Amino acid sequence: MKWLELLTVAGATLVSAVTVVVLYSLGxxxxxxxxxxxxxxxxxxxxxxxxxxxxxxxxxxxxxYLIIPYFSK
Length: 73
Known about the structure:
Elements: H1 3-34, H2 42-67
Helix pairs in contact: 1-2
């Protein structure tokens, strides 16, 4: 068995999963902060929150692109 390839895939999976979770969590946190009436610039925070959600969606779609063989022909 090729252990280096197995460790490479495991590492890439871990990094990808952590990235998606952090982006989603950051988006949720920024949305909650933007909803506070006492904030100075809620529009900027909401923009960054939606950007985080968008990047999270792009990462998920890219993962699906890599997994589904029909799309990678």
